[in-house]
Structure formats: structure tokens, C-alpha cells
Amino acid sequence: MRSVVLLSGGIDPVSGRSAPPRGEIAAIGLALSAGGAVGGLHVGLPAAALGQAAGHGLGQIACLRGVGDPVAILAAHLSAAPPDLVLAGSRACGGEDSGMLPYLLAERLGWPLLAGVMAIGAGADGWLPVTIGLPLGARQDARIRLPCILCAHDAAPAPPFVFDRARRVAMHTVAVADAETIAPLEGTERPYRARPRLIGSAAPAGGGRVLDNPDPAEAARVLLDHLRALGMLGA
Amino acid sequence: MTGRPRRDPRAERARCLVPGGARPRLARAGRDGMAIAPDAGPREPVMIRVETPVFWVAAVVEAPNGRLDRWARQTLGAARVLAGADGGVVALLAGRDAGEAVGEAGADRVVWLDTAIGPDAMPGVMLAALAPFAPRHVVLAETPAGGDWARRLAARSGWPIQTGIEMLSARQAIRPVGAVRRERAAVPARVLTLPIDRVAPYGGTRREGRPCPPPDVPAMAARMQVGPVMAAQAAGIPLAEAPFVMAAGQGVVDFESFHTLSRLMGATEGASRVVCDAGLMPRAAQVGASGTVLDARCYLAFGIAGAPQHLQGLGKVEHVVAVNTDLHAAIVARAGLSIIADAQAVMPALIALLRGEG
């Protein structure tokens, strides 16, 4: 199976230094667990964050040099020699950070897409079993037809960083045809201003019902009815 | 002596006193000295009905258990902000029927969506459901499922999308970009996703929430199969993420019953500092300032008085239930239901009741 990991040249949100987003490292881990050849793919000039991503297990990274919509450039490159699997993080870190690129790419290529992937199983008959991670530790098994695009869950296991691999990575630039230009973004950009979150939406219920010294059986019944009304117990 | 007549505060107060009610209520606003009509008793429930609004705003609401959570209500609140006075709000309800709660949360129409069709078919079904309304905006919660549907919808329809809106008004939406170091303010796009606790839920008069026929599911090639959700074992969920936490304090000595009860209820176990210090529960189970701050929906406290450092750990918990022998304990003031009894007596009664029900 041939896998391609989409890489963005991101920055660390705290320090502002170049670093790969957490989800892309997880995507490299998923690609390695699928077995076969794994390569990195980036649209733009080679960035420092790419070498760091390669330290987590990529032997080679192709940087596509073209002007225009990155989705169109990626779609043209991938449909010329389609891999079995395209992996991406949940969203980039340092650009528009909308997480739209894999979805637009899947729509353009006509491939299926699954997000929040925690683990990949062994593919057979053109289908790939995957495990999706949901909140509160819940899991969901799914099967997806190959070729497909998978977005890694941020909490999927990350392969360890090896400095030597980051140093030895073969980064080659591929000149590609220019694609259509993207529409300029609306609105104004400015430094981030932290706004307070709403408080009081989880207002303490203070001064609730008080049962003083009830019979234990009565207390148990009231307590279970209350928990059921809150929807905390199954029935 | 001036010519001004002397005030009689006692008589003024008596005139302002609204009759009825357990506590005295004074209505002073500009009506000092005027007679006030007595309260006409409980009023008829009022409901706003909208037949043909100028435009529609859609909100996709997740209600997997037939309940609207805080995030879902805030999503509908955001749709109401965008709808203003002229617009109507249509809720696409993904999950079980939530009854009147959707109307109370601000929806004029409700369209039910079947989530069992899987994420691949979702954008087609959403577009079919939205077609009769031609909404100006579609608001979704930035949950794992909601965020996924929003991006699929935007990619399929080609509608512009703004994700993670932190400040929303009818004219402007502000979202973080560039690794949350920059922000972009723009006119709200067609598709918007909303993080939790950014927009207040709708607090106005109840809306109709009229059910509309569900859309036809467009046929499409099966490209993926998604199985059922497998919930994690309550014991395996990290305390900070657990939705339902049951905690033991100094008032619990019968830990066997406590562990049995937590298994029967499907609750994650927590404990106060004293219990962890005594080695009766693992340190990882400690709730409070020096332990874990919870994000649970419900917290069931056995034998916990509620020291300030412990209550800090209850940060965002919506519902607290306390079983305690002390009526004046601090946790009783925080709890929605308090049972003043010995935990050792209540726990076996709960176990017997749960086992008796099967």
C-alpha cells in the first residue's frame, strides 16, 4: 500500500516557532502502521517544520512548487499517480486553520473521507478498516473504500522523533503547472484578542432540593429518579 | 419650614407593595403613589409563531439522547442572533426527537435528520433538508461530528465557511487564525461553526418548533460503512473527561458498596483529598484544586462536605447531587439534590434498587 501524508509548514501556537501540527505527526504514525511506502507531500517551498515532521518517520518529502489554489495543485498531482491512501492532520496551525483542505480535496478527487481516525487495520478487497475516536473515550469501527483520505485524530499515537531522520530526509522540489487563483479572504486580520468565555451557563444549581434524614429506601428512589431525569442513567 | 409636603415613606412602601406572593415585592418604577393592579394570577404560556419570515437561518443540532445540551442550545442561540427580528430559525435535529425543548431553545421549524446514514451521505441529506428554506446561514457546533458535517457541507455545496467563531453578531463574525495568534473579523459566511461557551443560548419567549417532513435520502454509492458507537468503560475514562463522576469523601467507609454502586451506575470514580491521602483511593481519582478539575455533567458526592479546594474541582459541573450527614455542609449549598443521611445506609439501598430493577 502506498500512502501519502499531507504536510503543512506550521508554527507552534505557544512559542511561534516552526513546528508540525500534532495531527500531522499522528497521520505519519497511521501511515507507518498501514505499511508500505510512505511519502510526505507539501505545497510550497521547503519549510523548517517539514524536516521536524520527517523526524517522526518520513524518508522523503515532495514539495510542489506552483502558483494558485493548493487544493487544485494537490488534486492534479495526486490524480496523476494516485496513491492508495492520503493522510492529513485535523487542521493546519499557522495559516487559515479551518481544516477544509482534506474535505475540498476529497470532493475534487471524488474520494471518500473519514475524520478523527485513531487506528488503521489491514486492508483487503479494496476496503480499509479504521477506528474512529469520539469524545469520552468512545470508539467507532468503520470500513472505507480505497483510495481514500483519512484525517488523523489529534490523540492518535504519535511515532517518536529521531533527530537523525530529520537530518537525512530527502526533500525534493517538483515544479507543477500553475492552478486557478484563490479568491482573496474577506474581512480584516489583526492580532488575536482573547475574549472571555460565557460563564454562568453551567450555573450552580444552588439551593436545590434537600431531603432531611429520609428513609434509605426512599432516599435511594428519589436519587435514582433525579439521576434519570437528568439523563445520567440508561433507562 | 419649606412649603414642600413631608414624605411618608411607610405609606409609600405600602402603596408600592404588590399583593400576593410569599415575599414582599415592591414595584416602584415611576409609579410611586399610584395604585397597582393586583397580579392576575399565572399567565397563559406565550408562544411566538412565524409563518413566512423574510429569510431563514438554519442550525444543525445534535441530540443523541433526545436532550439538547448546552452547546446545542448555544448553536440555536447563535442562529437566533443571525436571524434577528425578521428571520426564522430552522433546526436540523440530528438524533432523537427532543420534543418541545427545540422550540424553547429558539427554533421556529424542526426537521429531523437520521444520523444512521453515516457521514458520507450527510451533506446530501442536509442540502435536501435545507433546499425548501434556502437559508442565509447554517450554524453548526464545532463538535467532532458537527465540525465534520460542516466541512462536508461546505465542500459539497461550495458555500464559504468560517470555523471556530469566537464572537458573533448579525454583521460580524470573529475567528482565530494563524495558530490562535491572529484573528479575522468578517461578515458572517454561509456556513459557521461555533465552539462551546461563545454565544449565549436563546432566552426569549418560546418559539413554535413546528415539525417539518424529513428529507428524502438521496441514493449514493456505498463508499464507507460506519458501525455503532462503542462507549468506553466508565472506569477507563480519564476523570477530566468523564461525564458522570461519583466521588467518595471522609463519610464513606464501606468502599465495597461504593465500587459496586459505581459499576452499576456506570459512573467514573473520584475521591476527596482526605480519602486519597489515606490511601483508600488512587491519587489519580482526586477531585479538587490539587487533583483533577472536572468537566462532568453530573457529580454524585457521598460523604463529602465540600471544602473550597474540593468545590474548585467542580468547575463546570452542571448537576451536583450530595449524600451527606451534615445539613450545613458547603456541598449542600452547591447541590441540586441533597440527601441528609449516612452514605453507608443509602449506598446499599441504591444497590438493592438497581439490582431489583435488573
Automatic annotation (TrEMBL), chain A:
Query: Residues of the signal sequence?
Result: none
Is Electron transport a UniProt keyword of this protein?
yes
Residue stretches making up the Electron transfer flavoprotein alpha/beta-subunit N-terminal domain:
35-178
Q: What InterPro entries does the database record attribute to this sequence?
A: ETF_a/b_N, Rossmann-like_a/b/a_fold
Keyword terms, alphabetized: Electron transport, Transport
Q: Which Pfam families match?
A: ETF
SUPFAM superfamilies reported for this sequence: Adenine nucleotide alpha hydrolases-like
Question: What is the name attached to this protein's record?
Answer: Electron transfer flavoprotein subunit beta
Q: Which organism is it from?
A: Gluconacetobacter tumulicola
